[in-house]
Design brief:
Layout (H helix, E strand, L loop, with lengths): L6 E3 L11 H4 L5 E3 L19 E3 L19 E3 L24 E3 L11 H8 L5 E2 L2 E2 L2 H24 L4 H5 L22 E2 L5 E2 L4 H27 L28 E2 L5 E5 L5 E6 L10 E5 L3 E6 L2 E6 L10 E4 L6 E6 L89 H8 L12
Parallel strand pairs: 1-2, 2-3, 3-4, 4-5, 5-6
Antiparallel strand pairs: 6-7, 8-9, 10-15, 11-12, 12-17, 13-14, 14-15, 16-17
Helix pairs in contact: 2-3
Subcellular location: Cytoplasm, Cytoskeleton, Cilium axoneme
Family: Belongs to the tilB family.
Pfam family, one: CS_DNAAF11_C
């Protein structure tokens, strides 16, 4: 919104310097700065569309830095401090070819006897001076006496001890290039005083130098801060894992590692009959099942729980297309039964097993062998408990690791062929009653 403003009123704000207006409001057409403490016209060179500038009742002593305001039509400098020597800076306003009105009432220069004729002759584009129209006859007469007025003005100033050349010098934002940006090289304006300290006069070049020095110091401090934040301290613990929106991609050449970013309690055991592996994960009873994703492959299983990855290498190959996953109705425990590819082959890589009770053989108790028929296969997404009272099923992506979105209930599509595309098969109410035995607690998971 600021960048599109065309009119701004900042009168009676005790402003001492004009800053940022040219950068923040390049579209300004009308600018009110009257009744402030501004001692210098500056930093307006980017206002190419400025038509009216009101700086009445300020501390301005020279007419300068308005050469690039090419659209300026009206300039009000009533009650400022433009002295008789300040009339030498009128020449800078010749660049403002559209300037029609100028107000200098209340300035010391108006006390000079040739003030009006001098201004009218110096600025032929003016149509009004101090609210009075300039007639053609007045302009012709002023042009005729201009040489005499210039000579008289210079003589009076020299008699008063004024440095005429210094009084006539004006700034035209020469420290800026055509785009309005500061030039690359700015000469040093300071000098060393008696104490050996650098002293700089307050000018546009000094402001640019100090700004660049401060900017370099800020960049250096920011780099140190960034380097300190990247360096781990002794008090800081391990970095927190980043939440995943989906399973990380695994390349063929990548080496798989065991991961438990969510620090979930889990167990991985062999079923009592030796025909499958049983994975139990304590995800909590109040965890929404929509926050759980599964990815089962022949040699590893991955779970994405609340964006935290649980990745486990399996001690033997399993059949993803015949696996089942369910949650306990009471505790919310997630149980995944994964049939082995070769049920007759015992598990030899026991280091990858994680028994519920440390020091045991790693064999699960109380889990019947899962059915390998297509009609009892469960896949898809984790669902809430249905009206039938059955324990919910959890998504199992098999074969190629495809995870099926949605909540379909029906038969499998190509189960057992390793395609990885599945739908949910509803768990029967009778199977749940057989496991719970009519008791209320239901600690054990339903029939697998």
């Amino acid at each position: 919104m600021i960048s599109t403003l065309e009119e701004v009123a900042l009168h009676q704000q005790n402003i001492e310097k004009i800053e940022l207006l040219g950068q923040l409001c390049p579209k300004l057409r009308i600018l009110y700065l009257q009744n402030n403490l501004i001692g210098k016209i500056q930093n307006l060179h980017k206002l190419k569309e400025l038509e009216y500038l009101n700086m009445a009742v300020n501390n301005v002593s020279k007419l300068q830095n308005l050469q690039r305001c090419e659209s300026l039509k009206k300039l009000d400098l009533t009650i400022n401090f433009i002295s008789k020597s300040g009339l030498l800076t009128l020449e800078s306003l010749r660049a403002n070819i559209h300037l029609e009105e100028l107000y200098l009432l209340g300035n010391p220069c108006t006390d000079w006897h040739g003030y009006r004729q001098y201004v009218v002759a110096k600025l032929p584009q003016l149509k009004k001076l101090d609210g009075q129209a300039i007639k053609p006859s007045e302009r012709i007469a002023a042009q005729q006496v201009l040489p005499e007025l210039e000579a008289a003005l210079l003589a009076e100033l020299r008699a008063e001890g004024v440095d005429v050349e210094a009084a006539g010098e004006v700034e035209d934002d020469s420290l800026y290039d055509e785009t309005g940006a500061a030039v690359a090289e700015v000469p040093e304006t300071g000098y060393l005083d008696e104490k050996g300290e650098l002293v700089r006069p307050w000018c546009a070049a000094t402001r640019i130098l100090e700004h660049r020095e401060q900017e370099a110091a800020n960049l250096e401090a920011e780099e140190k801060k960034r380097a300190g934040a990247a360096k781990p301290s002794l008090d800081s613990g391990p970095p927190r894992p980043q939440r995943h929106e989906a399973f990380p991609e695994i390349a063929d050449t990548d080496r798989l590692y065991q991961k438990n970013e969510g620090k979930w309690e889990f167990s991985l055991e062999e079923a009592p009959d030796g025909g499958s592996l049983i994975l139990e994960v304590a995800v909590g009873r109040f965890l929404d099942t929509s926050l759980i994703q599964t990815d089962l492959q022949p040699t590893f299983v991955r779970l994405l729980i609340k964006g935290k990855l649980l990745q486990l290498l399996l001690p033997c190959e399993v059949r993803p297309d015949a696996a089942k996953a369910q949650r306990n109705m009471t505790t919310g425990q997630l149980v995944i039964a994964m049939p082995k590819e070769d049920p007759s082959k015992p598990v030899t890589d026991v280091a990858k097993l994680r028994p519920k009770v440390p020091g045991t053989s790693g064999t699960a108790s109380g889990y019947p062998a899962p059915s390998t028929s297509a009609s009892s296969t469960l896949a898809g997404c984790v669902s809430r408990y249905g009206e039938s009272g059955a324990a919910p099923a959890v998504a199992i992506g098999g074969g190629r690791g495809v995870r099926v979105p949605g909540m379909a209930v029906g038969t499998t599509n190509g189960a057992g062929n390793g395609s990885g595309d599945f739908t949910i098969k509803e768990v029967r109410r009778a199977a749940v009653k057989a496991v719970t035995g009519g008791e209320e607690d239901g600690d054990d998971p339903p029939d697998l």
